[in-house]
C-alpha cells in the first residue's frame, strides 16, 4: 500500500520531495530522544499549503496512516513513523505569512522555526514568547502539536496561551478553521483542544499567534546554593512573595560541572550544589523593586552569592550555561535521555532527593536542569544506547522517577508530550474513563485513527466509548 | 416524572437532595460528583432531559426539562495549597465565598467575571465569562488546571491535573471551559492562584467614547503594564459620561511608577479611587451587566472597537456596554433585544469575522439563536461529533446552536 501511494505523492510534490531510499529515510528514524527508533515507509515534504492538503487527501483516499513532523527536535518519540506509514515533514512550509504589529498577531506556516519568528518581529518591538530550548531549530507547528514550553513560559504561559487561530487539515482531507484572530473564541475552544494533540487530530496549515511587546527592562540574577533544598525553598519563597519572574531556572551540581568543563563555560561556581537563574522583566521601576526583593529572599534562603546583569551581553553570559546545558552533556556520554515531569513546587526539595536516590539505586549519571518556577523537572540521564543493560536501567529509573512525581501530586510531562515514550505512564495519572474520553475525542477529529497512530493513548487502558454521530452535525451557517 | 422514577432518584441521592423548583419541576441537589453521576446516569437510561443550574444568578433556570440538577450543594473547598498557589474546589461554591477563603491565606483568583458575587464557580467555568482582569491575567481557561466532569451518560472524566504546567494527554479542560455544559457537567476544578498583590490602584478617565478608545490605543502603544483597561458606557459606570478604568497591580514602587507613566501618556486627567471606592466601582460594574435579560460578547480587537461599538449601537443600543480597551479587546453588551435584532447582529459580525457569543438570555432566545449560532468552516461538524461523544442521548439541555425544530 505504502509504495502504491508513492507515485501519487510524487505527482503532488515532485519526485525530489518524496524520500524512499533507506539512506534517505535514516534521517527520520529518531527525534531528539534517542531511546526510540522507527523507520518510516516514505517521507514526503510538501512545499506549500495546497500541496500539504493534496498530500493529506491522497493519503486519506489510499487509507494510509501518516505522521506529521517538524524539525524532529521533539523529546517523546512523538514524530516517528513506522514502515506502513508516511512521514509528512513540514519544514518546507516555512513562510511567515503576515505580521500585524497593531493587533500584535502573526500568521505563520507550521514549518517556521520558532526563533526566526521573534527575529522577524523584534525590529517592531514585539516577540513570540514561548522559547523551547531547541528554539533555534524547532518549528511553530511542532510547538503547537506538543504545546511546547520553555524557560520564559513561567510568566507568559506556554504555547496554548499564545495561539488564537488555526487552519487545520483533518485526516479525512477536510479543512477546519478553529478559533479567531479577534479577541474571543468562536464557538467551543477547539484551538485549546487541538494544541497539544500531538499530531493525532490533524495538521495545522496556518497558525495565528499572539505577539507580545519586548519588555522595557530585564534583569537576570544568578544565585548559588550549597544545597538543592535551600535553592528549592528560595524558589517557593519568591513565588509566595507575589513575584512571578519571567524565568526561574535551576541547575544541579552535575549539570554545572558539565557546563563548566565544556566550551560553554559560563563562570558558574562548580562547588555549588545548585545554581538558580532568575529573570525579571517589565517596567524599570517594577523590575528594580522586584530585584531588591528577590535578592533579599535568595540571601535569606542561603544563597552564597547573587550576581546580576541588566545589559544584553552580560545577561546572555549568565544564561549561556543554562541554554547550552544539553549540548554540554554530550561530553559525558554518547546519548542523553532528557526526561520531563512536573511536581507541585513545594515538593521540589523532596523529589530532587528522591531522584538522587534513584540515581544511586540504578547506578546512572543523572543531571538536573529545569524550570523550577513551575516545578517542571528535567532529569537528564546520560547513557550509551549500545549498552543494553544500561538502557534497561535507564528505562526502569525513568519509570521510578515518573511514579515519584505522580505520587507527589504531579504529572508525567510538562512540555515534552507523551508520544511513544510516556504512553505506558498515562494510567498513572488518568483513569480508564478519562483515557477513554481522550480516545473518543481523538476519533472525533480522526475517526479512522490514521494520524500519528500508536502514540499518547495506551489503548488497552482506555475504557470503550461510542460516539453517536447524532443529528447534531450543524452546518457552518455563515461561512 | 413518575413516582417510580422519583423513587429511583431518592435511592441514588437521598430524599433530602430532591426538591421542586417554583414551577413544580423536580430538582435534585447532589453534594458529590458520584451523586451527580448517578443522577445523570439515570437520566441517560430513562431518556430524561436535564437542566443544569447553579445559584440562578447568571443563566436563567428556564430550559424546558424533565429534571433540574443544581450544583449549589457542591460547595466544598477540597484543598488549598498556599505554597503552590493552587486550590481544588467543588464548583457550586459562590465566588465571594471562595474569594474570602483564599484571601484569608494571602491568595486570590485573578478572575472578575460579570454578575453577582454569589455566582457559582461552575457558572463562570461553563460560560467562560471573564472580566476586565483578562487584560493582565488571561481568560477563564488560563486559571484552570484540572476538572472533574460528569458526561451526559453519567461517566466521570478527570482531565488535567493539579500542577501549573501539564501536557499529559489531550487538553479536554479547554473543551469544557466555555462549553456551556453541552459536553458535561463540571463538578470540581483545580485552580491556579496568585499571591495577593501588595499594591492595587484603580484610576478613571471620563470623556466621549471615541476620545477614550483613542486614549486606550495611545496607552497600548506606550506599552504600559495594566492589569485591566476597560471601557464602560455611562449606564454601566453609573456616570454621566463614558469611563475608561485602569487597574494597576504589583509592588508599591511599580504601581507608583506606572501611574506616573499612565498620566504622562494621557491627554485626559485620571481620577484615582480609594481602595473602598475602587472595590465598589468594579463590583457595581460587574452587577450592572445584569440590568437587562440578554448579555452577549463580541470578539473585537482594539483597532476595531469603535466600528464594532457603532454597529452594536446601531442594531441594539449602547446602554450597558463594556469593552476590553487594551490589547485583549472584547465587547460585552447587556440589554433587552429580540431574536430578529440579535440574528441580524450575528450575521453582520460574522461577515466581519467577529465571533458573537450569547452569554445569557431567556431560553426562547437561546433556543432560537444558540450560544454560538454560527461556526467557521468545518467546526460545526466537529462540535456535533463532540456532543455526540459526551452526550449521546441529548440529556443535557443546552442550545449551543439554534434549535429551529424546538428539540
Morphology call of chain B: globular
The CATH topology of the largest domain in chain A: Uridine Diphospho-n-acetylenolpyruvylglucosamine Reductase, domain 3
Number of helices of chain B: 14
Shape of chain A: globular
Give helix % range of chain B. Answer: 25-40%
Provide the residue-averaged pLDDT of chain B: 95
Report how far the terminal alpha carbons of chain B are from each other: 19 Å
Strand order of the largest sheet of chain A: 15-12-14-13-18-20-16
The low-pLDDT segments of chain B are none
Strand residue content of chain B: 15-25%
Straight-line distance between termini of chain A: 37 Å
CATH-scheme architecture of the largest domain in chain A? 2-Layer Sandwich
> How confident overall, as mean pLDDT of chain A?
94
How many individual domains of chain A?
4
Computed Rg of chain B: 22 Å
Oligomer: heterodimer
Overall description:
The complex is a heterodimer of chains A (479) and B (407). Chain A has 479 residues and is an alpha+beta fold. In chain A, 33% of the residues lie in helices and 20% in strands. Chain A is built from 16 helices and 20 strands. In chain A, strand 5 (96-100) and strand 6 (105-108) form a beta hairpin. In chain A, helix 1 (4-13) runs antiparallel to helix 3 (49-62), helix 8 (228-240) runs antiparallel to helix 10 and helix 8 (228-240) runs antiparallel to helix 13. The longest helix of chain A is centred in the C-terminal third of the chain and has 20 residues, at 388-407. The model of chain A is unreliable at 475-479 (pLDDT under 50). Chain B folds into two domains: 1-196 and 375-407, 2-Layer Sandwich (Uridine Diphospho-n-acetylenolpyruvylglucosamine Reductase, domain 3), CATH 3.30.465.10; 198-373, FAD-linked oxidases, C-terminal domain (Vanillyl-alcohol Oxidase, Chain A, domain 3). In chain B, the strands form four sheets. An eight-stranded antiparallel sheet of chain B has the order 15-12-14-13-17-18-16-19, with helices on both faces. Chain B has a five-stranded antiparallel sheet with strand order 5-6-10-8-9. A four-stranded mixed sheet of chain B has the order 1-2-4-3. In chain B, a hairpin with a 6-residue loop joins strand 17 and strand 18 (331-335). The mean pLDDT of chain B is 95. Classes of the chains: A alpha+beta (479), B alpha+beta (407). Chains A and B meet through strand 9, helix 7, helix 8, helix 10 and helix 16 of A and strand 9, helix 6, strand 11, helix 9 and helix 12 of B.
Amino acid at each position: 500500500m505504502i509504495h502504491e501511494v508513492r507515485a501519487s505523492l510524487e505527482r503532488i510534490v515532485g519526485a525530489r520531495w518524496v524520500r524512499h531510499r533507506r539512506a534517505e529515510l535514516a534521517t527520520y528514524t529518531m527525534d531528539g530522544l534517542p531511546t526510540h527508533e522507527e523507520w518510516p515507509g516514505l517521507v514526503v515534504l510538501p512545499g506549500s499549503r495546497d500541496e500539504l492538503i493534496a498530500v493529506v487527501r491522497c493519503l486519506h483516499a489510499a487509507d494510509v496512516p501518516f505522521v506529521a513532523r517538524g524539525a524532529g527536535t521533539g523529546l517523546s518519540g512523538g514524530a516517528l513513523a513506522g514502515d506502513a506509514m508516511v512521514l509528512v515533514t513540514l519544514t518546507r512550509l516555512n513562510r511567515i505569512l503576515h505580521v500585524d504589529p497593531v493587533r500584535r498577531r502573526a500568521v505563520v506556516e507550521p514549518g517556521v522555526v520558532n526563533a526566526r519568528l521573534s527575529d522577524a518581529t523584534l525590529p517592531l518591538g514585539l516577540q513570540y514568547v514561548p522559547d523551547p530550548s531547541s528554539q533555534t531549530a524547532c518549528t511553530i507547528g511542532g510547538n503547537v502539536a506538543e504545546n511546547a514550553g520553555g524557560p520564559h513560559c513561567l510568566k507568559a504561559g506556554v504555547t496554548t496561551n499564545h495561539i488564537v487561530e488555526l487552519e487545520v487539515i483533518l485526516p479525512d482531507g477536510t479543512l477546519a478553521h478553529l478559533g479567531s484572530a479577534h479577541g474571543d473564541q468562536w464557538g467551543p475552544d477547539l484551538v485549546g483542544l487541538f494544541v497539544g494533540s500531538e499530531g493525532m487530530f490533524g495538521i495545522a496549515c496556518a497558525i495565528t499567534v499572539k505577539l507580545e511587546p519586548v519588555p522595557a527592562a530585564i534583569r537576570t540574577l544568578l544565585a548559588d546554593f550549597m544545597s538543592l533544598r535551600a535553592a528549592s525553598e528560595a524558589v517557593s519563597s519568591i513565588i509566595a512573595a507575589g513575584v512571578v519572574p519571567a524565568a526561574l531556572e535551576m541547575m544541579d551540581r552535575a549539570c554545572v560541572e558539565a557546563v563548566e568543563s565544556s566550551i560553554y563555560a559560563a563562570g558558574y561556581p562548580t562547588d555549588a550544589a545548585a545554581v538558580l537563574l532568575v529573570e525579571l522583566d517589565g517596567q524599570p521601576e517594577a523590575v528594580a523593586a522586584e530585584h531588591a526583593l528577590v535578592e533579599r529572599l535568595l540571601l535569606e534562603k542561603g544563597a552564597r552569592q547573587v550576581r546580576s546583569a541588566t545589559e544584553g551581553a552580560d545577561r546572555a553570559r549568565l544564561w549561556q550555561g543554562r541554554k547550552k546545558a544539553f549540548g554540554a552533556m554530550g561530553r559525558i556520554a554518547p546519548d542523553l535521555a532528557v526526561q520531563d515531569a512536573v511536581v507541585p513546587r513545594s515538593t521540589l526539595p523532596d523529589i530532587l532527593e528522591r531522584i538522587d536516590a534513584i540515581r544511586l539505586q540504578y547506578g546512572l549519571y543523572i543531571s538536573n536542569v529545569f524550570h523550577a518556577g513551575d516545578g517542571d523537572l528535567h532529569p537528564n540521564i546520560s547513557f550509551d544506547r549500545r549498552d543494553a543493560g544500561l538502557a534497561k536501567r535507564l528505562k526502569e529509573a525513568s519509570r521510578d522517577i515518573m511514579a515519584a512525581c505522580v505520587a507527589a501530586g504531579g504529572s508525567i510531562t510538562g512540555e515534552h508530550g507523551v508520544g511513544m515514550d510516556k504512553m505506558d505512564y498515562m494510567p498513572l495519572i488518568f483513569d480508564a474513563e478519562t483515557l477513554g474520553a481522550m480516545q473518543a475525542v481523538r476519533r472525533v477529529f480522526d475517526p479512522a485513527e490514521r494520524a500519528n497512530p500508536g502514540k499518547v493513548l495506551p489503548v488497552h487502558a482506555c475504557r470503550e466509548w461510542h460516539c453517536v454521530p447524532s443529528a447534531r452535525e450543524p452546518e457552518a451557517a455563515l461561512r | 416524572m413518575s413516582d417510580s422514577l422519583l423513587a429511583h432518584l431518592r435511592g441514588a441521592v437521598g430524599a433530602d437532595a430532591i426538591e421542586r423548583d417554583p414551577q413544580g419541576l423536580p430538582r435534585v441537589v447532589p453534594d458529590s460528583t458520584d451523586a451527580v453521576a448517578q443522577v445523570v446516569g439515570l437520566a441517560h437510561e430513562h431518556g430524561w432531559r436535564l437542566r443544569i443550574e447553579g445559584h440562578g444568578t447568571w443563566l436563567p433556570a428556564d430550559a424546558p426539562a424533565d429534571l433540574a440538577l443544581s450544583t449549589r450543594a457542591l460547595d466544598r473547598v477540597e484543598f488549598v495549597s498556599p505554597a503552590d498557589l493552587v486550590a481544588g474546589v467543588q464548583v457550586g461554591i459562590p465566588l465571594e465565598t471562595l474569594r474570602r477563603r483564599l484571601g484569608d491565606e494571602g491568595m486570590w483568583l485573578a478572575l472578575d467575571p460579570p454578575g453577582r458575587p454569589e455566582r457559582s464557580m461552575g457558572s463562570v467555568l461553563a460560560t467562560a465569562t471573564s472580566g476586565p482582569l483578562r487584560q493582565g491575567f488571561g481568560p477563564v481557561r488560563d486559571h484552570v488546571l484540572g476538572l472533574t466532569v460528569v458526561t451526559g451518560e453519567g461517566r466521570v472524566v478527570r482531565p488535567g491535573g493539579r500542577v501549573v504546567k501539564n501536557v499529559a494527554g489531550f487538553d479536554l479542560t479547554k473543551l469544557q471551559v466555555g462549553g456551556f455544559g453541552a459536553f458535561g457537567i463540571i463538578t470540581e476544578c483545580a485552580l491556579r492562584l496568585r499571591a495577593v498583590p501588595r499594591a492595587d490602584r484603580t484610576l478613571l478617565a471620563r470623556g466621549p467614547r471615541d476620545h477614550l478608545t483613542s486614549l486606550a490605543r495611545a496607552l497600548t502603544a506606550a506599552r504600559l503594564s495594566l492589569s485591566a483597561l476597560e471601557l464602560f458606557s455611562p449606564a454601566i459606570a453609573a456616570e454621566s459620561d463614558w469611563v475608561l478604568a485602569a487597574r494597576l497591580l504589583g509592588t508599591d514602587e511599580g504601581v507608583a511608577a506606572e501611574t506616573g507613566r499612565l498620566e504622562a501618556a494621557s491627554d485626559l486627567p485620571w481620577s484615582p479611587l480609594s481602595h473602598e471606592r475602587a472595590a465598589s466601582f468594579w463590583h457595581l460594574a460587574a452587577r450592572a451587566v445584569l440590568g437587562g435579560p440578554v448579555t452577549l460578547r463580541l470578539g473585537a480587537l482594539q483597532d476595531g472597537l469603535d466600528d464594532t461599538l457603532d454597529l452594536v449601537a446601531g442594531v441594539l443600543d449602547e446602554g450597558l456596554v463594556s469593552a476590553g480597551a487594551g490589547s485583549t479587546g472584547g465587547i460585552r453588551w447587556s440589554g433587552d433585544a429580540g431574536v430578529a435584532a440579535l440574528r441580524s447582529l450575528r450575521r453582520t459580525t460574522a461577515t466581519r469575522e467577529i465571533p458573537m457569543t450569547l452569554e445569557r438570555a431567556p431560553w426562547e432566545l437561546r433556543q432560537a439563536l444558540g450560544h454560538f449560532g454560527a461556526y467557521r468552516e468545518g467546526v460545526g461538524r466537529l462540535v456535533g461529533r463532540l456532543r455526540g461523544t459526551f452526550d449521546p442521548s441529548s440529556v443535557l439541555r443546552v442550545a449551543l446552536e439554534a434549535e429551529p425544530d424546538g428539540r
